[in-house]
Amino acid sequence: MQVSPEMRAAWTQLWTTGDLDSLPQQRAAGLLAPLESTWRRFFSSFEDGARLLDLATGGGEVLRAALAVGRNFHLTGVDIADLSAVSASFQTSKIELIGSTDLAGLPLPDCGFDGVTSQFGMEYADIEAATREAVRVLANNGRGHLVLHHRHSVITQGIINNLAAEHSVFSDDDTFQVGRQFFELKACSASTEAIKGAEAAFRRSVAVLRSRIRNEPAFGMARNVVGFLTRLAEVPDSLPPAEALHRLDFVKRDTEARRLRKQAQLDSALDKEGVRRLSTALTNAGAVVDPARELKYREGQLMAWELSFCKRAGRAQ
Q1: Sequence ranges of the domains in the chain
Q2: Each residue's pLDDT tens digit, 71-107
Q3: Are 106 and 138 a contacting pair, CB within 8 Å?
Q4: For the domain 5-153+269-311, what is the CATH code?
Q5: Ramachandran bin of 118, using left for φ above 0, alpha for ψ from -120 to 50, beta for the remaining angles
Q6: For residue 176, which of 202, 195, 149 has the smallest C-alpha distance?
Q7: What gap in Å lies between CA 10 and CA 3, rounded to an integer?
Q8: What is the pLDDT, as a whole number, of residue 271?
Q9: Rounded to two decimals, what is the model's pTM?
Q10: What confidence tens digit (pLDDT) does each residue in 150-164 have?
């Protein structure tokens, strides 16, 4: 399965913002203690000098969990996105980050790692190829641990709600294009009549978007975007036309990339059959796989799947 340039760019865009936490609101609310405990237990089972690989490392959350154990690990992270911004966030030479790399074809040696991890990443890839690669680079008797999106988790339900909210606000909408036409006319000093007509059209289009916003958490990101468009429509002279055009294009790209990531997350979330297929793929690649477990919040709601495995001794790829 080829990763599209659009998808690669969407993930790169996320990690270049400097917000390297995939669940910042839940972490800020102290809800991720079960997930943090999972990684602390796993990394604490390795000795100093262990070679550990994190697949689909993203903002490096799992690598930071490994560093927090305080042992002299040799850490490597791989991701489909460009990881330049993530690399700059680490203040240690103990970590090697390899960006723009598909999990289906790792540029890493056979049996090179004592442990392999992935948090909300392996399930996005070509499962058959990615599991073969994960086991190939794992040393004999090496161990792996995966945290995977659950089809019925709180996280996935939140994505469903977000996508539905954004669709209800922006479906069949051309407000960005209407705004662009307005500021292009301003930039080229068109007639006053033409500029006023375009400005009125932009304000009407933004007003339609505002009317679709509901006072519900799922509308948070849509509300932010509409807020930006509202400020631009109400005070168009607050920015030079060229800067207004630049910001319109940036917000439009950011909105489209966010939707693409959310849809990919929804499509990758695993039900029981999906996690069974992933377990079977690991087994076929030469791993001994423990039964999948459901990771839950302290209140009992579903967070994710957990899957642990080890590589059978003598299984060279």
Answers
A1: 5-153+269-311, 174-265
A2: 999 999 999 999 999 998 887 778 999 999 999 999 9
A3: no
A4: 3.40.50.150
A5: beta
A6: 202
A7: 11
A8: 98
A9: 0.92
A10: 999 999 999 999 999
